[in-house]
Write a structure and sequence with these properties.
The protein has ten helices and 20 strands. 49% of the residues are buried. The protein is of the alpha+beta class. Helix 1 (10-21) packs parallel to helix 5 (145-158) and helix 1 (10-21) packs across helix 9. The chain has one domain (2-364): FAD/NAD(P)-binding domain, CATH 3.50.50.
Length: 366
């Protein structure tokens, strides 16, 4: 079959990988270069971890996600992944951390509870004074995001697929399987897969009430020299409390330390100026200052914005909108870790190996 995919981020390219593996002729249309620096997928790293609070469906799905990554690494001939382990810190009520620990233990994943003294003894760069609890697990690690996107693109083209770079899509006829490009060219395919990130509702207006573009800010830091060695062996740190959330990504594989928050802005235009405002950066750094010792000694290397596409209850939207069109959206800032699996699910649906309802339910964490 002829498959047209709109969007060459990690979701679109993962679908392209799985569909081309099934023998389909695949063309991916991307409005910018690949990797696209404005895309939600393109950054140095993303996290994969089993801790999911009370969202046990997604916690269990991480097991399947790891298996899908292994299949992708085998095809690529390289694994863009660094295991780090995971430190979950609790603040406020500590409910998210408690739910996570309970779920991981039920899954048979070893969890080591830690008090404040144990946290600072093992990781002296952390300030544990605001923590109400913590636990560590050896599971989890860093996915090297931009390298994954680049390798997926190269793999697709090596298989005979096509990537139409700098080729914006203007309109989609979901029933006719027809795409109109900005230059007026019309492309007809047997099936269309739309993975357009924060631009998805502009192409598929029916989704405008289901997903919201959310401007987020992150920063790259250089740790003080005295802590550099400790950071090299650090786990990812995820600190999600009542109405706030911070993540710290250790400097692995030649990448810098990254910090960000998981509090959705629920606003922003992905086509507007992406330069972070001082107040946006200060908000992230203020949160980090509560978690990192001697934070004044850290140096900000770079700050940048990215966009989440947030769905109700942060549940992914992977479903057909017609007999000829599937959409991949609503990944809500936690979808990258599942991207290889999501691509396989789309391929399974188009091949009839899974029912559409089953695919949608899996993607929604049920």
């Amino acid at each position: 079959m002829l498959i047209a995919i709109v969007g060459a981020g990690v979701m679109g390219l993962s679908a392209a990988w799985a569909l081309s593996r099934d023998g389909h002729q695949v063309t991916v249309f991307e409005q910018g270069p690949v990797p696209n620096p404005l895309g939600s997928s393109v950054d140095r790293h993303r996290l994969i971890r089993h801790a999911y609070g009370a969202a046990t469906g997604y916690a269990r799905l991480v097991v399947d996600a790891y298996a899908a990554w292994d299949r992708l690494w085998a095809d690529l001939g390289v694994a863009h992944y660094v295991p780090t382990g995971t430190l979950i810190a609790a603040n406020g009520s500590g409910r998210w951390a408690e739910d996570s620990a309970r779920c991981l233990e039920a899954m048979g994943i070893a969890v080591a509870p830690l008090d404040r003294k144990a946290v600072t003894r093992r990781w002296p760069f952390l300030d544990a004074s605001s923590m109400t609890g913590a636990f560590h697990t050896a599971a989890g690690g860093v996915l090297l995001a931009d390298r994954i996107v680049r390798s997926l693109a190269g793999n697709l083209e090596a298989r005979g697929g096509t990537i139409a770079r700098n080729t914006p899509v203007r309109a989609i006829d979901i029933d006719a399987g027809r795409i109109e490009l900005d230059d007026g060219t019309v492309v007809v395919a047997d099936h269309i897969v739309v993975a357009a990130g924060p631009w998805v509702a502009r192409l598929l207006p029916s989704l405008s009430q289901r997903v919201t573009a959310s401007r987020q800010v992150l920063a790259y830091l250089e740790a003080p020299a005295a802590l550099a060695a400790a950071w090299r062996d650090a786990p990812m740190v995820v600190d999600i409390g009542d109405g706030n959330g911070v993540y710290l990504v250790p400097p692995v594989a030649g990448t810098p330390l990254k910090v960000g928050d998981h509090v959705f802005s629920m606003s922003g235009d992905p086509n507007a100026d992406r330069t972070p405002r001082k107040d946006e950066v200060a908000k992230v750094l203020d949160q980090c200052g509560l978690r990192l010792r001697d934070f004044a000694d850290y140096r900000v290397i770079e700050s940048r914005t990215c966009f989440y596409t947030v769905a109700d209850n942060e549940q992914f939207v992977l479903e057909p909108l017609s007999e000829r069109l599937w959409v991949m959206t609503g990944f809500s800032g936690h979808g990258f870790k599942f991207s290889a699996l999501m691509g396989e699910l789309v391929a399974d649906a188009l091949a009839g190996r899974r029912a559409a309802t089953e695919v949608s339910a899996i993607a929604a964490g049920h």
